[in-house]
Structures are given as structure tokens and as C-alpha cells.
Amino acid sequence: MRSKLLNEFRQTAKSNKRFELPQIYGHIVEFSGDQHGSRFIQEKLETANSDEKDQVFQELQMNAVQLMKDVFGNYVIQKFFEHGNQVQKKVLAGAMKGKVVDLSMQMYACRVVQKALEHVLVEQQAELVKELEPEILKVVKDQNGNHVIQKIIELVPRQHIDFIMNCFKNRVCELSTHGYGCRVIQRVLEHGAEADKVVIMAELHQHAQQLIPDNYGNYVAQHVIRKGSPEDASKMIATVTKDLIHYSKHKFASNVVEKCIEKASIEELRRIREAASVTGPNPEDLNSPLALLIKDQFGNYVIQKLLNQLKGKERQSLVDAIKPIVYPLKSVISKQPASAIDR
Q: CA-to-CA distance for 302 and 115, rounded, in angstroms?
């Protein structure tokens, strides 16, 4: 049941009455768990003086964990990590002690854990992170927990997350083909130490043929091409080029092929063009590899991407290979891809 004060507050939107923080003292927890009350407290904390923050904090402190898990209350706790003093942040982080795994895998509390990691001192960061060690793989694969692990990789000094990096060894393929694990692997490739990236990349290249056509692994392969070192990107592009026709006709792998075309060097692009434009002895053969790509629901986008990226003689070479088959193909493929390639 809402208190009389909260009911009155919720009706103020229809009147000119304006509330201030001191008017809701004694009801801070109740207001924090209400959609409108929570928003009000968040706004006021941004400009509140130290006495007002102290009073709000005293009321919240005993219910901090409960509010962390609340659909509206979690935002109030997050706001304290942003605008509270160092003592208040330390107390809130202390309230998480012994509960970090549970909070990290809870829909709303996982956001609070991430916010805490952004604002507490390194010593408390390390304490929070250490609790995850026994359940690290479970948290990595969790729909909420994976966001916490990503934030840890971005923010926490490397010396405190050995156990996280160690859990990836010999599991890179397993995690890269997991709906949530693939996100964590991508964060390591962005924010990990160079030594960690080398280990991760070695396993990625070893299992590239499995990752490229995978529902989730294809995103990791694309990440390597888009943001990896030139050497790692070239290795991935070479792997794709070796089996270009097969990958181009695959729902997920074709996205990797298109990313290769976008990021390839002039020489790599030439090899991709050669692999894609095989026509056989009869240039008008509608069953040649090139014709099969144009007919394919995914492969035709690869050809369109090639036509957009190639320049000069290389582009003309592909155009010359397409010309003898593009018009006969119009009778056997859908209008949209045929028209796009014709243009």
C-alpha cells in the first residue's frame, strides 16, 4: 500500500506543488521503489547538499541490497555511486560483500555492480571482483553477469583479474560460440593486455573455420577483421578467401565475407575477387561458382559488396565476368538482387 505522502506526491504532476527532499524524509525507501519517486530522488541527488545526501543515505543504507535488486530502486543506488562521497560509496560496496555473484546475475542489480566498479577505489574493485572467482564461467555465460565481466575487463587493473583471463585458456572457441561469452571475448580483444590478446588470438585462428559460420562466432571473427591488428585481420581474411564460395552462401559467414571485403587491402581484395568470379570454360554457364553466388540469397550481397568496393581494372574484370550471365539469371532469381547487381 502506498503511504499518504507518496499518493500525494504522485498527484503533484497535476498541480503546481513542488516537493523537495526534506519533505520526503522518513519515506526514502518507499519513494525509491516507486517509478516516480525514484526519478525524483535521482534528480535531487545530483544537486543535493551533503546534509541532504547524508539523511537520504541513512534511510537507504539498511535496505541497500533490496533496492539494488529493485526495478526502480537500483537507479537510486547507482546515483549514490555517482554523487555520494567516498565513505558512502565504500559502505554501499561493503553491503555487496558475499553477494557479488548473486547481484551480478540479477537483472537490475547487475547494473549497480557495474556502476560500483566505475566509482569505487581500486582496493574495493579488487574485493568485489575476487568474489566471482569460484563461479566465473557461470557469470561469463549469464545474460546479466556477462555485462559485469565486460565492465571488469574494461576497468579493473590487470593484476586483479588473473583468474578471469586464466578461465579463457582453451575455452576461447567455446565462449566465442556462446551468446553471451562472445561479447566477453570481444571486450578482451579491445581492452585486454597485449599478452592476453596473443593467447586469445592464437585460439581464435586455430578455430576460425568453426567460428566464421557460427551464429555467435561470426561476430568475433568480424571483430578481429574490424579491430584486430593488421596481421590478425589478414590471417582471418586469408582463411575466408580460401573457402569464399562456401562462406558467401552461408547466412552467418556471409557477413564475415562482407566485412573482409570492407577491410581488405588492394591485394587481398584482388584475391577475393578472383575467388568469387570463377566462371568456368563457358562464360554463360548459369551453374558456375559466380552464377551460383549471384543466385544465392546471401551470396548475391557479397557480389554487390565487391562491386561497391572494387575500383578501376579490378572492378571492370568482375563486371566483365558478370555481364554474360546477369540477364539470363534474371529469369531464375528474384527481381531485387538481380536488379541490384544489374545496376
A: 42
List CB contacts of 58: < 8 A, sequence separation 6 or more.
none
The segments of the chain whose pLDDT lies below 50 read: none
CA distances from 275 to 63, 241, 305 (A): 63, 7, 14
* DSSP class per residue in 280-292: -SSTT-TTSHHHH
DSSP string, 136-183: HHHHHTSTTHHHHHHHHHHHS-GGG-HHHHHHHTT-HHHHHTSTTHHH
Nearest to 206 by CA among 242, 181, 172: 172
Rounded distance, CA 166 to CA 73, Å?
A: 35
227-263 per-position pLDDT tens digit: 999 999 999 999 999 999 999 999 999 999 999 999 9
- pTM exceeds cut of 0.85: yes
- 82-115 pLDDT tens trace: 999 999 999 999 999 999 999 999 999 999 999 9
- All three cell numbers of 105: 546475475
Measured over the CA atoms of residue 11, residue 17, residue 23 and residue 28, the dihedral's sign is: positive
